[in-house]
């Protein structure tokens, strides 16, 4: 039974050996007929199927005699060579070892195939489109038409959403009420402060809860990096009674509001407080609280903005205390970088007797202010107002000192302003003082005084202008070479 099975397998493999020239047959049409099957006949004879020789055919002795390449124990002839047999006899054992069945699984080595030059590229598998899931129908909402002055805008609101929003607002209000004891601590946290600010948008009930939780700690929160934002927003939405309560809390101690105004965060909160004040009583309380520290506030880079916000938001009568303090300390304020700006703002916002008092105080200190790096701007501002009493007071202080003032960096700007704004009589006094100097060439070459002479040429007329031109013309050669005289030499009258 076993012999029959092996014979059947052997007979079935014979056509496969012929197919494709596995036995090394010629590619010509008659190559199969010339194939040497002696080794197969020998095997069949050994099984008793056919008669054959006792010895299997031996392989040729010459290894190079027409052999090609070896594969799985078989040797294939070169193209066009003689049909040769395998070096080893054909048996079932060698067949199973070297010729596996065509239906056995074969492991494909891609790396080795690529190294042998095989083309292993193939087209990608076709993409299978998956149909999208069916869309879930959305619940229908109730349509509400807004009536804003006949506007036809239409919005859709869901009853479920409306109910959920109402429940959320209710629960939010209840949660804020439960946080009253720790709300001031929450306001000092970045995320907690944002949460409370959002609560202020939910209505009057939430505003009341938050106000009750933070009002006693308003002074501490206004200088906090995060809490000051909550206080600013609270001041914008609280009612009149709550605002008055905050004002009373912040002004109970005379220096509390001043310290807050000097802080980099507190100054913004105090400015928001000033913007929100409505009654005369509230304004009076805030001004009285700021008055003791006015001089310190006006010089401070943060506090000066609080004073300027008062000048901008309140009426002139409400700012009377600020005007009086500015007039009293005008020299000290005017010679400071922030103070000179506040002093000019005070002049601009004051009216009537308050303004006259303030301008007169500045004019009395005009000579000192004119020589200061910041005070000279205040003096120029007063000169531009063209107030007769103030300009006359300044002219009297400057008379006989114009040369001294012209040779200084800051006061030379004041003298130029005097030549542009003063009356003709006062202008003539300045030009005559320049002409009377024994060393005019020094003024022409001076880095600051040369600008004063140039302004004198521009703002003089008639015989006075001719006298000034004649005094300068002998120094034309000097004007050509000096770097500070080019503007004077460029005047058309001097070139003639």
- Helical residue percent? 55-70%
Rg (CA only): 54 Å
Strand content: under 5%
Number of strands: 4
Biggest sheet: strand arrangement: 1-2
Shape: flat
Low-confidence stretches: 15-35, 49-108, 116-130, 141-171
Average pLDDT rating:
76
How widely separated are the two ends? 142 Å
The major β-sheet equals: 2 strands, antiparallel
**Helix count?**
32
The class by helix and strand makeup works out as mainly alpha
Could you list some keywords that capture this structure?
496 residues, mainly alpha, two-stranded antiparallel sheet, PUM-HD domain-containing protein, PUM-HD, mRNA binding, ARM-like, Pumilio_RNA-bd
Summarize the structure.
The chain is mainly alpha-helical and 496 residues long. It has 32 helices and four strands.
Description:
The chain has 496 residues and is mainly α. Among the domains are: 2-100, no CATH class; 404-496, no CATH class. It has 32 helices and 4 strands. The strands form 2 sheets. A two-stranded antiparallel sheet has the order 1-2. Strands 3-4 form a two-stranded antiparallel sheet. A hairpin with an 8-residue loop joins β3 and β4. The protein is flat. The termini are far apart. Residues 15-35, 49-108, 116-130 and 141-171 have low confidence and may be disordered.
Give the SSE layout.
Elements: H1 2-18, H2 38-47, E1 67-71, E2 74-77, H3 92-98, H4 110-115, E3 142-145, E4 154-157, H5 159-178, H6 183-186, H7 190-199, H8 204-214, H9 218-222, H10 227-237, H11 240-251, H12 256-262, H13 266-276, H14 280-290, H15 294-299, H16 303-313, H17 320-328, H18 330-334, H19 337-349, H20 352-364, H21 366-370, H22 375-385, H23 388-398, H24 402-406, H25 411-421, H26 424-435, H27 440-445, H28 449-458, H29 462-472, H30 476-481, H31 486-489, H32 492-495
Protein name: PUM-HD domain-containing protein
Keywords: Repeat, Translation regulation
GO molecular function, one term: mRNA binding
């Amino acid at each position: 039974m076993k012999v029959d099975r092996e014979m059947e397998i052997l007979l079935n493999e014979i056509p496969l050996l012929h197919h494709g020239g596995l036995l090394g047959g010629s590619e010509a049409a008659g190559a199969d007929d010339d194939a040497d099957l002696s080794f197969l006949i020998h095997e069949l004879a050994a099984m008793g199927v056919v008669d054959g020789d006792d010895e299997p055919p031996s392989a040729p002795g010459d290894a190079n005699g027409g052999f090609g390449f070896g594969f799985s124990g078989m040797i294939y002839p070169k193209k066009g060579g003689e049909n040769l047999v395998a070096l080893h006899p054909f048996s079932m054992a060698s067949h199973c070892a070297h010729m596996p069945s065509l239906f056995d699984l074969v492991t494909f080595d891609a790396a080795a195939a690529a190294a042998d030059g095989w083309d292993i590229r193939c087209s990608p598998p076709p993409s299978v489109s998956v149909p999208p899931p069916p869309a879930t129908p959305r619940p229908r909402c109730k349509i509400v038409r807004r009536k804003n002055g006949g506007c036809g805008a239409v919005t859709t609101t869901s009853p479920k959403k409306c109910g959920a929003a109402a429940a959320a607002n209710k629960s939010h209000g209840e949660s804020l009420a439960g946080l009253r004891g720790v709300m001031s601590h929450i306001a000092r946290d970045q995320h907690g402060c944002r949460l409370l600010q959002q609560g202020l948008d939910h209505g009057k009930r939430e505003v009341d809860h938050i106000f009750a939780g933070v009002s006693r700690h308003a002074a501490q929160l206004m200088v906090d990096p995060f809490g000051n934002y909550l206080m600013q927003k609270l001041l914008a939405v609280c009612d009149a009674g709550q605002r008055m309560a905050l004002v009373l809390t912040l002004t109970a101690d005379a220096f509390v509001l001043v310290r807050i105004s000097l802080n980099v965060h507190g100054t913004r909160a105090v400015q928001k407080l000033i913007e929100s004040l409505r009654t005369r009583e509230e304004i009076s309380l805030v001004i009285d609280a700021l008055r003791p520290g006015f001089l310190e506030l006006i010089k401070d880079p943060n506090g000066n903005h609080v004073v300027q916000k008062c000048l901008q938001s309140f009426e002139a009568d409400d700012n009377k205390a600020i005007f009086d303090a500015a007039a009293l300390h005008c020299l000290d304020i005017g010679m400071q970088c922030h103070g000179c700006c506040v002093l000019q703002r005070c002049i601009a916002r004051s009216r009537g007797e308050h303004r006259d008092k303030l301008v007169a105080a500045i004019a009395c200190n005009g000579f000192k202010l004119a020589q200061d790096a910041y005070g000279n701007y205040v003096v120029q501002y007063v000169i531009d107002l063209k107030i007769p009493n103030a300009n006359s007071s300044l002219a009297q202080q400057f008379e006989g000192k114009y040369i001294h003032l012209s040779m200084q960096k800051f006061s030379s700007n004041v003298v130029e302003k005097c030549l542009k704004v003063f009356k003709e009589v006062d202008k003539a006094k300045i030009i005559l003082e320049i002409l009377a100097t024994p060393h005019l060439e020094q003024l022409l070459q001076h880095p600051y005084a040369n600008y004063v002479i140039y302004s004198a040429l521009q703002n003089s007329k008639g015989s006075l202008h001719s006298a000034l031109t004649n005094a300068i013309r002998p120094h034309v050669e000097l004007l050509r070479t000096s770097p500070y005289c080019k503007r004077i030499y460029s005047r058309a009258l001097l070139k003639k």
